[in-house]
Amino acid sequence: MSPASAHITDYDVVIAGGGLAGLATSIGLSKAGHKVALVEKYTYPFHRVCGEYISEESRPFLESLGIPFHKLQLPRINKLIVSSPGGSVVRSPLIPGGFGISRFRLDALLANIAKENGVHLFEGTKVIDMVYHDGKMKCFLQGRILESKLAIGCFGKRSNVDVKWKRPFITHRPGKLDNYIAVKYHLRGVDLDEDTIALHNFSNGYCGVSRIEDGLYCMCYLTTAGNLRSNDNSILQMENRLLRKNPHIDRLLDRAEIIWDEPLSISQVSFSAKSQVHDHVLLAGDAAGMITPLCGNGMSMALHAGKLLCHEADAFLRGEISRDELEHNYCRQWNRHFAKRLRAGRVIQYFFGDPKLTGLLVGIAARIPGVTGFLIRQTHGEKY
Ligand SMILES: Cc1cc2nc3c(=O)[nH]c(=O)nc-3n(C[C@H](O)[C@H](O)[C@H](O)COP(=O)(O)OP(=O)(O)OC[C@H]3O[C@@H](n4cnc5c(N)ncnc54)[C@H](O)[C@@H]3O)c2cc1C
Hints:
Pfam families: FAD_binding_3
Bound molecules: flavin-adenine dinucleotide
Protein name: Pyridine nucleotide-disulfide oxidoreductase
Strand content: 25-35%
Organism: Flavihumibacter solisilvae
Domain FAD-binding: 10-327
Number of strands: 17
InterPro entries: FAD-bd (IPR002938), FAD/NAD-bd_sf (IPR036188), Geranylgeranyl_reductase (IPR050407)
Shape: globular
Order of helices and strands: EHEEHHEEHEEEEHHEEEEHHHEEEEHHHH
CATH architecture of the domain at 3-73 and 100-174 and 271-352: 3-Layer(bba) Sandwich
CATH class of the domain at 3-73 and 100-174 and 271-352: Alpha Beta
Largest sheet: 9 strands, mixed
């Protein structure tokens, strides 16, 4: 269909991607009185690869959006166990700690709140491109164009839009921080205290396990694409030959019941630096920069970026600041809050890839109690 014949609809803001960043931004801007469209390629509720441990720092913001914590009775998590690939263990308090909830439930709750607040939600709809033309943004969907004053990209770690825009992290030669894969299961019958998150390391990877709602546990691991390739691209073979070398993972997989027939998996995960604005499209969440999952803080950052973006975008839509000021202010805020954490996350990721270094780090942390707390502080922020 040519753009001339496509159906055109006008909004103040169009947001591509309905994960945490997109949902939070859409609710905030709609509550502020703006006409908002949110486009998500899947239909809620749906599972996605994520460790499902949310840092406590985001609780007040989620409450302000309308998440009814008092009704949900979610497990509070304030202890950490880290095991080395060989199985030695260090335990530490987890400050500020967090809580567990599946993305299946959390994202659907937020999507309902968005609809109740007047967000026009396009589910099961893919954004093909977003372009700036003559002071307006155009968002191309299949057979339809959404026009708006402002466009926001919250399409996660890697999207067809990133490929279309040829963003540098797509086109550059892959380095050590690119090309990871991740796998997730929901489990029942896990021998792990409700208040504890376990981070079990294995060669070139780590596996997080923690409680979510309804007595279930989330097990989610990240490793290199090379590990999967060298196991004939079989997840089961890789788990048997590699992950199970860590006795804690071995015991977990033997004893717990996996409640899905197939695991959920993703590939081409990259932690390379990204820009926060592309051709006047403002980017938030993983689309603007992804912190390594072992920091357990990506969801908080995605939500926080949404909050920062709402503040600046509201000022722009009310005519109080120009588009240039909006982009400048947002980038400055984003860097102030997140740039240091992302850098720290990348450094820690290097350590945790190598079995010898991980073993060494676990040994040091076991002897010097302040080390784990120090690393947690480098990757977490204040309540917002
Ligand atoms: C293995 C792993 C474990 C993790 N564990 C944790 C953890 O325990 N705690 C934590 O805080 N963080 C964790 N994270 C990080 C966390 O999942 C992300 O940082 C967070 O989900 C980012 O939110 P987002 O809104 O930016 O992106 P997402 O939640 O990924 O949402 C992006 C959305 O955009 C949609 N989309 C993409 N392209 C298009 C398109 N063209 N059109 C329409 N829609 C589109 C997608 O379908 C998706 O719904 C983990 C990440 C990984 C990889």
